[in-house]
Amino acid sequence: MKILAIDSSSKPVSASVVKDGKVLCEVFVNNGLTHSKTLMPVIKSVMDHSESSLGEIDLCAVVTGPGSFTGVRIGVAAAKGICFNNDIPCVGISTLETMAYNLSCVKGYVCAVMDARCSQVYTATFKCGNGVERVTEDRAISIDDLIAHFKELNGDIYILGDGAELVFSKLVADCEVSNVILVNENNRYQKSSSAALCAGVKAADCYIKADELVPVYLRLPQAERELKNKLK
User: Fold this and answer.
1) pLDDT in 10s for each residue of the chain, 232 residues
2) Cys staple from 196: which of 5, 37, 84, 231, with CB 3.0 to 4.6 Å?
3) What does the alpha-carbon distance between residue 80 and residue 75 come to, in Å, rounded to a whole number?
4) Domain ranges of the chain
C-alpha cells in the first residue's frame, strides 16, 4: 500500500510518501511561512521525489488534531481536495497518536503532550514495545492532572511533543522524574511519516471519503471561548 501523509498541525509542515511501511520520501519545513504557502509545494515535492503519481496513492493520511486550529484546517482542506478529485480514500490521524509512532519500538509508556495554553495540555498515553496500544483517549487536562496520571503507571514513561519540556521542568522542580524520560529533539515532534505508519495499521473500515474528513478539536478556538464567556 502506498500512503500519502500530511501534517500541518503545528508550526512545521511535513508530507511523506510511505509504501508498505518504507518511507520513500519525507519533506519537513519549519521556515516560519504560513502553511497556506508551504503545504502544497511540500506535497508536490514528496510526490516528485518519490516518483509517485496521485493515481498510485492508495490512501491519504492527514493529521486532524489537536493542534493549531488554522494549521489543522489547512491540512484537512488540502487532503479533502486531493482525495475528492482523485477518488482516494482518506483517514484522519490523531496528532498525539502520530507522535507515539515515533517511539513504537521502545518498551514502556509513551505520553504525547502538546501545550494547550491556559495551564492545560493536550495529551494521550500509549503503551509501546509490541506495537502501539492506546491507554487513554486524547484529552485536554491540567499539568497537575497529567502528573497524577503518571503516578498511576508502572514503568518508564517517555514524554514527547511541544509541551513535554514544560511538563518535565515541573517534574524536575518537584523531584518526581525517576521514571519519566524526556525524548530527544529529533524524535520529540510529530512527523508525517509517523502518521503514515499509524494509518498503515488501521483497519480498512477506518477509511472514509473526502467529504467525511473533519478536524478534531479538544477545545473550542480562543475566539469562540471568549465569545462564550461574554455571553454568560
Assistant:
1) 999 999 999 988 999 999 999 999 999 998 888 999 999 999 999 999 999 999 999 999 999 999 999 999 999 999 999 999 999 999 999 999 999 999 999 999 999 999 998 889 999 999 999 899 999 999 999 999 999 999 999 999 999 999 999 999 999 988 777 899 999 999 999 999 999 999 999 999 999 999 999 999 987 555 454 445 555 5
2) 5
3) 9
4) 2-95+190-230, 97-187
Neighbour tally for 90: CB within 10 Å: 26
Q: Which amino acid, 58?
A: D
CATH says 97-187 is which class? alpha beta
- Residue 55 CA to residue 14 CA, distance in Å, equals 21
pTM (2 d.p.): 0.91
Q: Which CATH number fits domain 2-95+190-230: 3.40.50.300, 3.30.420.40, 3.40.50.10490, 3.90.550.10?
A: 3.30.420.40
